[in-house]
Automatic annotation (TrEMBL):
Keywords carried by this UniProt record: Cell wall biogenesis/degradation, Lyase
Residue ranges of every copy of the Lytic transglycosylase MltA domain listed in the record: 154-311
Record organism: mine drainage metagenome
Catalytic activity: Exolytic cleavage of the (1->4)-beta-glycosidic linkage between N-acetylmuramic acid (MurNAc) and N-acetylglucosamine (GlcNAc) residues in peptidoglycan, from either the reducing or the non-reducing ends of the peptidoglycan chains, with concomitant formation of a 1,6-anhydrobond in the MurNAc residue
GO molecular function: hydrolase activity, hydrolyzing O-glycosyl compounds; peptidoglycan lytic transglycosylase activity
Name this protein carries in UniProt: peptidoglycan lytic exotransglycosylase
Originating gene: mltA
Length: 416
């Protein structure tokens, strides 16, 4: 009876807890493979509205299809020949460590592993012989969508709170409740509700404004402390990063969970308030605004109720872990919507470099997800680590097209 009441409460709370911008993809294959939250540039389109019909029949919870796929050929991929790189090949081999046990990937991954190091001609022939390209279209048949960027940030921090290091990273709270909606409706497999129990009721979990109080409800669950609230905010958007301690040690942190509230763009809010122009609405522009408005900063951050919890990652990782559970590769890994693009699959991206009209066409691997990455032609480009990666990611807000490469002769799930 107690579980029945919880499930009924969960159904009633779907509009509040479904978090269209904060819902993780299908469960990862290991504890290491957790989804990022609102992985997107500060300016991103408004996330899809949560399902509003929550009456008793479970089928009413189903989400509409985000788009569809159309079979094409490699001649339709812009600059296909020049879009291959050693980084992409290595990223594909990383994907194979997770896909090799799943049909129809088993034989393809065995072939790829046997091919050895990168060779452009061999790689091109392998993909052309083994895969079919499918162009991804929006529900209205349009081929273009938004391509943003993300990176692995570096923050300065401490294991203890000090006068300088006073902004906490929290681990997952013990009272955070997650309900798999796939238990209620098959169409919602991989969608989750997040909340907490009050008596026998499931209520929304604490928002950012409630968590970030001086004596907030999560006091005692701090992992680390950092010196910059804006960089901490962007760390939550990126989903993973590096914290350098005062003794020089570097700790890798990654996404562990999220409070279930939807991601809201503070850049959009600042533009609506007349505080930023469209040209200033970048990560760098928000940081500049924060430096000149410290007294207003927390109120603006609270406009995004989504809040991310972290965990410490192994120190020897070559890159942050994506949702697939493999290290991400700079300029070769992509965050996507798994309702359309299966994790691990190759995706050909055609867009432009940040702030320029110069074509950026390359094969990448769908190895990550993001709470704000929702929709068919929608992706987040992982730039890597360092100042240049931060600069590129902060300014990337480009139009682009996507093609899914799927094993030859097999229909992708979204094409059914």
């Amino acid at each position: 009876m107690r579980m029945t009441r919880l499930l009924i409460s969960a159904c009633i709370l779907v509009p509040f807890l479904l978090a269209g911008c904060a819902t993780p993809p299908p469960a990862p294959q290991s504890a290491a493979s957790a989804p990022r939250p609102g992985v997107c540039a500060p300016v991103s389109p408004t996330c899809p509205q949560p399902v509003k019909t929550v009456s008793t029949p479970a089928e009413n919870l189903a989400l509409p299809p985000p788009g569809h796929l159309v079979r094409t050929d490699f001649s339709q991929l812009p600059h296909w020949d020049s879009g291959l790189s050693p980084a992409t090949w290595n990223a594909f081999l990383e994907s194979c460590t997770r896909l090799s046990q799943d049909a129809p990937w088993t034989s393809l991954c065995q072939q790829a592993t046997a091919l050895g190091p990168f060779d452009a001609l061999t790689m091109r022939r392998f993909f052309e012989h083994s895969f079919d390209p499918w162009q991804i279209l929006n529900p209205d048949e349009s081929p273009q969508g938004l391509i943003t960027g993300y990176y692995e940030p570096l923050l300065q921090g401490s294991l203890t709170r000090t006068a300088v290091y006073r902004f906490p990273l929290y681990g997952p709270p013990p009272d955070l409740l997650t309900i798999d909606l796939g238990d209620l409706a098959p169409d919602l497999k991989g969608r989750h509700l997040r909340g907490r129990l009050v008596g026998n009721r499931v209520v929304p979990y604490f928002s950012r404004a409630e968590i970030d109080l001086e004596d907030g409800p999560l006091t005692g669950h701090e992992l680390l402390w950092v010196d910059n609230p804006v960089k901490l905010f962007f760390l939550q958007i990126q989903g993973s990063g590096v914290v350098q301690l005062r003794d020089g040690r570097r700790l890798h942190v990654g996404y562990a969970d999220q409070n279930g509230h939807p991601f809201r763009s503070i850049a959009r809010y600042l533009m609506e308030q007349g505080q930023l122009s469209l040209a200033q609405a970048s990560m760098q522009g928000i940081e500049a605004w924060a430096r000149s408005h410290p007294q207003d900063l927390q109120a603006v951050l609270n406009q995004n109720p989504s809040f991310v919890f972290f965990r410490l990652l192994p120190p020897d990782l070559p890159g942050p872990l994506g949702t697939l559970g493999v290290p991400l590769t700079g300029q070769a890994s992509l965050a996507v919507d798994t309702q359309v693009i299966p994790l691990g699959a190759p995706v050909f991206l055609s867009t432009t470099w940040p702030g320029r009209n110069q074509p950026l066409d390359r094969l990448m691997m769908a190895q990550d997800t993001g709470g704000a990455i929702r929709g068919a032609v929608r992706a987040d480009f992982f730039w890597g680590f360092g100042v240049e990666a931060e600069e590129a990611a902060g300014h990337m807000k480009q139009a682009g097209q996507l093609w899914l490469l799927y094993p030859h002769g097999v229909q992708p799930p979204a094409a059914h």
